[in-house]
Amino acid sequence: MRKPNVHETINPSILYYGTPVIIxxxxxxxxxxxxxxxxxxxxxxxxxxxxxxxxxxxxxNLCHHPECVIxxxxxxxxGKVETLGRTTGISPVPEIKKRMGYTFCQDKFKAxxxxxxxxxxxxxxxxxxxxxxxxxxxxxxxxxxxxPFMAIxxxxxxxxxxxxxxxxxxxxxxPEQWQPLIYNFRHYFGLxxxxxxxxxxxx
Length: 203
Prior knowledge:
The protein is mostly beta strands. The protein is 13% helix and 39% strand. The strands form five sheets. The protein has a seven-stranded antiparallel sheet. Strands 1-15-16-17 form a four-stranded antiparallel sheet, covered by helices on one side. Strands 7-8 form a two-stranded parallel ribbon.
């Protein structure tokens, strides 16, 4: 039996300790929208900070066109997120991603069974099924010297949209109605029981 409050030093292969999943919409050079699931983000006021891999299409798109939509799926959408999580918008697939099991996908909306919805103030499309959508403009992109394969992206929210069932009163979200999808050490949870797991959960 494990003793309470006794710690053991470990070296975990992942540090996704439980954050809401987002699906980031960015603009491809041909004017279409790319979708990228992310598990690293936080918000303070109208400032949001995103963690993005530098070898993916999202990073390339944000450098080219500094606008995005932060779509927040609810817990019921974990399967659609997982479908997107196996794909990349880059062809040919980078070798490092190929080894991890990623495949190229041109139309990610179709692949995941999602519906594009025009944004009001930015170019990339929103995802109609996501209960919360945040249109945003990129303010700063920084690549840490100690972690050159990741980028820290600061964005400013310019428009926020919410499914009507989440709105309790003017400009307020009812937390009892909002059921975010949580990414917890590569497993998907709602605010209760586990919903599913990422295809790389055991790696």
